[in-house]
Every structure is written in structure tokens, then in C-alpha cells.
Amino acid sequence: MSWQDVSEDLTSWLVLTFCFLPLIILWRHRTQPELRPKGCRRLGLPADESNLHDEFDPKYSEGVPAGTHDENGLPSWRIKALFTYPLKSCRGVELQTSDIVATGLEFDRQFVFAQDSAEGWNTRTLRNAGYQRLALIHPEIWIPDPSVVDYDPNLPEIKSEGIMIISYPRPKPTTHLTSLFTKIGIRTGFLNPRLSFSIPLVPPDSSEFPLIPVKIWKDKPLAYDYRTTLPPSLHAYLGFSPSTSPVSLFRASSAHTRSIFRNAPREEVLGFQPITGFADAYPIHLLSLSSHRDVAAKCAYTIPRLSVLRFRANIIIQGPVAFDEDHWKRLSIAGVEIYAACRTVRCKLPNVDPITGFRHAVEPDKTLKAYRRIDDGDRTNACLGMQLVPAVQEFVMNVGDEVMVLERGVHRYIKMLAPGEKVEGV
């Protein structure tokens, strides 16, 4: 064989290699098939719809009289939007209607990420340094629906009372070549820029999901450990090594909920002691659009469009003038009595943009602290929004429901207590 023949063979081999290598790499990292659980329907509004599509309209900066109706015959003070946040600190699910259960909106803050440490498993949220990537994790709730064609009560999806699909951005490849072809694959549509996996909404009766203590603030409730369901690519996206900085996913247990005291009405008043899952302190968080617009206007110098979504409220209302809710004690929503337990004391979590995951260095925390440190119970931190405790444990709430104030009064925030610690005078 001549040198020319060898050279031609080598050239051909190199050409074939560089032609097919991208295809091989892309095939190995190809888009996962879309997960569509059998026998279920997706909870919430379609992805391209939102009741907050006009949240930046200047009209929401102005209050209107309570008890009146608008040109469409709707109550002037009403629910503008509803959100449940099944996976704490991750993207919310916007709803048109929601069942309210003992822990708040159904599914709200029932799942949380936690990191292993010398003290055990500690919950991790957008507050924690390095966890702003949680904002770009999107959970979907799929619940059983007997009306769909493939519904079967024996399906595992039905036995687990539905499933949650969790998607997240595809991690950046570790090599330059793989990175290049991954970009090509995404741009050509061969690869999905997001990866996903699914988990049961309610753990089946097995040892696969053991109950383990998880620390949230000063509580350590037992929760189901879902770590076996987490794919390695999720660890890669979060930027933590499974061997050196283990991260797990936990599901709240209905038998090990956290009882709420502090500012919450007591069992003697309600007939039951309020409880929650992985919410910080109270079942429901309410925020007024006019109050938010006031804050957003003061932040416009650096964040021109500060979305109300940064504050992760369950109920967003329209109608009252800015900060009218600061003094609400009892209200009615769709005829159901609800206690305004206390003001919502804010941390720096809203500094994270829920769309991009970018953490702003100072805003809106700086602006809030400049004029919203209004509660004598905590003059260090600002307040925006109200924490609610319904007087009944089960009812239905809808977008458009009327909001009425039944009682006004004075609020004084009570800070976090250690287990067994009592509030002076209570």
C-alpha cells in the first residue's frame, strides 16, 4: 500500500469521524421523551396564560372603593391571581381555582430540597447562597382524572394520587467539544434545553421513601426522603456533588405536620390548631397589587419591571389602596372567614428574579427596609403582605372571589420561637 493510499484512508477516516461524532454526542444526550402521566391531567392554567398578564398596568397602583363592582360586574376588591408552590423556592403553579386544606392551598410547600450537614438535613431555599438556581426548577402537578381515556385505578400514577414532573435547565457540559455540540443540538431542536423526571405525589407504602427528620427553622418534622428519585444531572445543575455535598428532596408527611402558634389564632378560637407543611410559618400568604406597585415604583431606577412573582404570594388581590392590608385582622373571601395573623416579614429572597434566577445585590430589600420597617415586633426587617389562617380547614377559593374586611386592628409580629418556648403573656 502506497503512502498516498494511507493518506487518503486517513483523510476519509477523519472526515467520517468529524461528521458522525456530533451525531453520536447528540444521540447520547438526546432530548428525553415528554413525560405525560397516564390517567392524569395537569393542574393549573396553560403555560401561555396568566391572570397577571397585565400586572404592570398603572391602574393597579390606585385603590377603588370596597363593596362596589367594576364595568364587568365583578367585585372591586377581589382575587386577581392564585398560586401554589408545591416545591418550595421553585416556580409556582398558577391556578384559576384551588382547594384549601389544613396546610393552605392544596400542594403548597409540600416538597422541599435539603442538604446534608453535621446537624442532619437542613432545608434549602432561595435565601441560601448558591441556591438561586432553584428559581429555574419548574414543578408540574398531575392529578388523577377519571374522564381521560387512559384512566385506570390500578395505574401507579393513580395509586400515588398523581405525580409531580420536575424540570430544570440542562447542565453545562464538562468538555468544550460536548458543549459545542450541545449548543448545536439545542439550537436545531434536536435537544431540549431542559431535562425532567417524575416523582409520586404521595409515597407508596414502601421503604423506598423513609421518614427522616428535616430541619426547617427551629422545627424538625419527619418527612419522606425522595433522594433515590433524583437524577445525577439535577445535582450537576444545582452545582453540588452527591458524594461531598448531598442534596435530597423531601415530601411533608400528613402525620407529622408543624403546629403554628406565635400570631396564629389558637385552638380555643378555631376548634383546631393551625398547621403547615414546609411553608415558613403560616398556611397562606396574601399580597395586594397596589402595595406591590408602590414598592416596584421605588425600585424602578434599577429594576424597571419588578414582578409581583418575586414575593411568592398564594393570593394576589386587587382593589385596596396601597398597604391598606397592614391593619386587617379578619377578612372574608368568598364568604369564608379568614384571620390575618400577622404581617409578612421580608427577607432577601425577593432579590432573586424568578424568571432568570439572577440575584440582585440589593433590591428590592434595600427599598423595603427604607420605608417598610413598620412592625414593632421586628423593627429590623421590612413588611409586605399578610399571613392568613382560615377559620375552617377545607373550602374552595377562586380567582374573582370577593375580598371583604371584617375587622381592623393593631398587629405586633412575634419572632420565631424554639420548640416549647412560650410567648410572654400567652
TrEMBL record:
Protein name in the entry: Molybdenum cofactor sulfurase C-terminal
**Does the keyword section mention Coiled coil?**
no
Q: Name one Pfam family in it.
A: MOSC_N
Which spans are transmembrane here? 12-28
The residue ranges of the MOSC domain are: 257-406
Question: What are the GO MF terms of this UniProt record?
Answer: catalytic activity; molybdenum ion binding; pyridoxal phosphate binding
User: What span is annotated as the signal peptide, if there is one?
Assistant: none
Identify the InterPro entries for this entry: MoCF_Sase_C (IPR005302), MOCOS_middle (IPR005303), Pyrv_Knase-like_insert_dom_sf (IPR011037)
Among its keywords, does the record have Transmembrane? yes
Could you list this entry's UniProt keywords, alphabetically sorted.
Membrane, Transmembrane, Transmembrane helix
> From which domain of life does this come?
Eukaryota
